[in-house]
Structures are given as structure tokens and as C-alpha cells.
Design a protein that fits this description.
By secondary structure, this protein is of the alpha+beta class. The protein is about 30% helix and about 20% strand. The protein has ten helices and 13 strands. The strands form two sheets. The protein has an eight-stranded mixed sheet. It has a five-stranded mixed sheet with strand order 7-8-9-10-13. The protein binds aspartic acid.
């Protein structure tokens, strides 16, 4: 049982320190807050998401409600094959969704993984944050949890996505996510750079900052196309696909989740910013680390460079933002100073010109 005298003493000390400006709550730590209105950043497919998020924040919404409402637009769009309705399925033709959310002021998070039949994975992740004492719920449990909260089941495989999956199935031959065992006669997995296999990565990440200096983030995805059922990527993993520290900034990722997980991508970006790196430097340092740590021959091209792409996104507490990717050509969606637009992501390697 807490000692009431010590607790009273602590509260008195804390009140005195706060009055002296020595302790500031996260949401009051607004010395660097942006003056030109809210800032929202997203993967390139999130122009509508950043616009919606900033409009809600301008109307007084909490940053977490705003980013989730922003990505809901893309989750419900059947023409975006990276997430929600119309997302590309696993190797058995079933769409499985991953999502995580994080609320800066409370440093609270929620996530779902391998969730089937529910369009708005990010809303379910937010409910894990709000209505459970857990950080992540997966698979059947996630679906049951969503249904308990009134979500309706729906087949997420659109006709267009089914045809794309069928084409992959009919043509993929041995080029899938299974690796040969060590005693297989030919253990050399063909490099994906040369295999011609059509994997589709795609995800939506969105981070937002309000004028009080409060941050939240969400990442939501149908994950790597044609994955092994039950495969979980970086998107629902706090510290990999998304992370927020309200005193520092927010970060997120898209691209090959396995590489982001093994490098604690979003957490690393935020930690680098905490130690003084600018958002572009922090993103690029993590991209370089991912490239340096990629050793599997089947993931390298003939010059030893990763044959996949990853993008890291960062939004600092003072409103500075950036994105960096392994390969050139990437963009991020931004809303700042009231204007939504695309900006170029920095890159490590220039993509070879198409012949
Ligand atoms: N990062 C996601 C995953 O690995 C996919 C993506 O962003 O394209 O599941």
C-alpha cells in the first residue's frame, strides 16, 4: 500500500517543481510546436489522409483520431491494393491486415496483426489501445475482438485483387517466400532482383503534429503480397513500422517489413532525432543501416545492394519532416502551412534507368 505521507510529499514536490517550470507534462511541452498550423506526413498514397488529418486537428480533434480518420479513407478505397478493401492477399488468396497506432501524449499504443475480414484495421488497433490493457491482438482473436466492438465481417478480396493474385499463382513457379532447406541440392535462392517475381509492397503510414506539440502516428497495411499466411510485417510492430515519443517526434516505415523489424526502424529514427539528428539525417542513417545489415544473397543485387526497397518517414516535434528510401523515386505526402503536396524522398541508390 502506498505510504500516504510520502505520496503527499511527492505531490507537493512535484507541484513546486512544475510551478517552477522544471516539470512539464508531455502535452504541455510545446516550446517547439509548429506555428503554421498542424503538420501531417504520410506515404505517397496518403494525400487525402494528411488533408483529412490536418482538417480534423484544425477543428480541435486529437492527433490520434485525426491520423486514423485520415488513413481510413485509403483503407476503404478498393483501388489501393496496399491496404484494407482491395488489399493484395496472402498466398492462399486471403487478405490479412496489420496495423498499429501510437498516441504521443499518453505514450500508449495498440495493434492488430493478421486480421481478416475487417476493412478498418487501424480502427481496431485504436480500440486495442483504448479498450484493452494489451498492446497487440492477432489473427482470430483480433477478428473476434473487432466483432465484439460491432465491426462487420466483409470479404476484402476484390475481383481486381483476386485476378492479380491468380496471375501470381499461375506464374510464380518456385519464386515465393519459402526458402529451400540447407540440405537441398541447389540451395541458391534466386535473387529477387533478377527473378522477375512481382511482389507488391504498399502500406499507408501517417503521422501528425498539432500546434500544442502533440504527436500521433498510425501504420496500416495488407502487407507483403502473397505472403505466407500468418506472416506479420513491420506495420503492427511498435518501434518497427511506427513509433512516437511525444518529446521528440514520430516515425514510420513502408517497404520490406522484415528488414525494418530487424533494424527496429521507427524506434531508431526517433532515437537518432532525440540525440540531435535532423529528420532527413535520421531517416537516411536508418536506411543505410538496413542496407549494411542486408547479407542474404537472395536479397542482394549483382552489386551487393538490397534488391528491395524500404522508406522511413520522420516528423519532428518542431514540425520538420523528411523521408528517405533505399531506392530513388520515392515520395511522401505532406500537409504543412495549410498546403497538401507530394515531396521527394531522399535515397541511397539511384534506380537504374529502364531499358
Ligand atoms: N511494410 C509492409 C510489410 O512488410 C509492406 C509495405 O509497406 O509495403 O508488411
Amino acid at each position: 500500500m502506498p505510504d500516504p505521507v510520502s505520496r503527499r510529499t511527492f505531490l507537493a514536490t512535484a507541484a513546486a517543481a512544475a510551478a517552477a517550470g522544471k516539470i512539464r507534462s508531455a502535452s504541455a511541452d510545446n516550446g517547439d510546436a509548429p506555428r503554421g498550423g498542424p503538420v501531417a506526413i504520410s506515404s505517397a498514397n496518403g494525400l487525402r489522409a494528411v488533408t483529412k488529418a490536418a482538417a480534423m486537428i484544425n477543428d480541435g480533434a486529437d492527433t490520434l483520431d485525426a491520423v486514423v480518420a485520415g488513413v481510413n479513407i485509403v483503407e476503404a478505397d478498393p483501388t489501393d491494393h496496399s491496404v484494407g478493401l482491395g488489399g493484395l492477399p496472402n498466398e492462399e488468396g486471403v487478405v490479412e491486415l496489420d496495423s498499429s497506432v501510437m498516441h504521443g501524449p499518453t505514450h500508449n499504443s495498440g495493434a492488430v496483426a493478421a486480421l481478416r475480414n475487417v476493412v478498418y484495421a487501424s480502427r481496431v488497433a485504436k480500440l486495442v489501445l483504448e479498450r484493452t490493457d494489451h498492446a497487440m491482438i492477432v489473427g482470430h482473436g483480433a477478428l473476434r475482438f473487432a466483432k465484439a466492438h460491432g465491426f462487420e465481417e466483409q470479404d476484402l478480396l476484390t475481383d481486381e485483387a483476386r485476378k492479380m493474385w491468380l496471375r501470381w499463382k499461375e506464374t510464380h513457379s518456385d519464386r515465393d517466400d519459402w526458402l529451400p532447406p540447407p540440405d537441398a541440392p541447389d540451395n541458391g535462392k534466386q535473387s529477387r532482383a533478377h527473378s522477375g517475381v512481382q511482389y507488391t509492397y504498399g502500406t499507408i503510414h501517417c503521422s501528425a503534429l498539432d500546434t500544442r506539440g502533440d504527436l500521433s502516428a498510425v501504420t496500416t497495411t495488407s502487407g507483403l503480397s502473397y505472403k505466407i499466411p500468418g506472416r506479420v510485417g513491420d506495420s503492427p510492430i511498435v518501434g518497427a513500422g511506427m513509433y512516437v515519443d511525444n518529446a521528440v517526434g514520430a516515425a514510420g516505415s513502408t517497404g520490406r517489413g522484415e528488414a525494418v523489424i530487424k533494424n527496429c526502424g521507427a524506434f531508431a529514427v526517433v532515437e537518432l532525432m532525440r540525440n540531435g539528428a535532423s529528420p532527413p539525417d535520421a531517416c537516411m542513417a536508418v536506411i543505410k543501416r538496413i542496407a549494411d545489415h542486408t547479407r542474404d544473397p537472395h536479397l542482394l543485387d549483382d552489386r551487393g545492394r538490397p534488391s528491395f526497397d524500404v522508406k522511413m518517414y520522420a516528423l519532428a516535434k518542431d514540425g520538420r519532416f523528411a523521408a528517405a528510401s533505399i531506392w530513388s523515386g520515392g515520395k511522401l505526402a505532406v500537409l504543412s502551412n495549410g498546403t497538401a503536396r507530394h515531396e521527394d524522398a531522399a535515397y541511397l541508390f539511384k534506380r537504374p534507368e529502364k531499358q
